[in-house]
Write a structure and sequence with these properties.
The protein is an alpha+beta fold and 165 residues long. The chain has one domain: Alpha-Beta Complex (Cyclic Phosphodiesterase, Chain: A), CATH 3.90.1140. The chain has two helices and ten strands. The strands form three sheets. The chain has a four-stranded antiparallel sheet with strand order 2-1-9-10. A four-stranded antiparallel sheet has the order 7-5-4-8. It has a two-stranded antiparallel ribbon with strand order 3-6. Strand 9 and strand 10 form a beta hairpin. It is globular. The relative contact order is 0.30.
């Protein structure tokens, strides 16, 4: 019986998957894109556990920056970064300590993490001063130019046994 081979890369984040016209939907990454040999079900269990631990929160756009691998992607830095940093820390510790994965760009992890939104689709007009309610964590697969939402979990709700306790 054939087994499903894991896709090339993943990211955890908030994603508005309803507007994905160009292969990229509006999103807030909780960490850089990564690779791991873990089965997909393990990543979904972890995403569920993270979702149960964090309550929904609001962020505000505070500055416009050009980010991405070549510095060409219009992005809006977000504040307050405390909740986003907490989500990033969960993902970072898990990837390094449990998933034995690796980031495509490790400079964007840990101290180098920049909480930001990549505006597209419905959020194309998101700008400095705009507010966004972060209410879910999603597992995204593909790459930064061709994304596919695997599954989302609402923040602050029980989805079964937590894996973070």
């Amino acid at each position: 019986m054939p087994t499903e081979r894991p896709p090339q890369s993943y990211s955890f984040g908030y994603a508005d998957h309803t507007s994905n016209a160009d292969g990229v939907f509006p999103h807030v990454n909780f960490g850089p894109w990564f690779r791991t040999q873990l089965p997909l079900v393990s990543m979904l269990i972890y995403a569920r556990g993270v979702a149960e631990t964090i309550r929904p929160f609001d962020v505000v756009g505070v500055s416009e920056e050009q980010l991405g691998l070549q510095g060409l992607t219009r992005s809006i830095r977000l504040d307050p970064a405390v909740e986003l940093q907490r989500l990033h820390d969960f993902v970072d510790r898990w990837l390094v300590n449990r998933a034995h994965g690796r980031y495509f760009n490790p400079d964007h992890a840990g101290e180098g993490y920049i909480p930001h939104l990549t505006p597209r689709g419905k959020l194309a007009e998101f700008a400095v001063g705009s507010q966004l309610h972060i209410d879910s964590v999603s597992l995204i697969t593909g790459d930064p130019k061709n994304m596919k939402l695997v599954r989302s979990y609402a923040l602050g709700q029980s989805h079964g046994r937590s894996v973070l306790q």
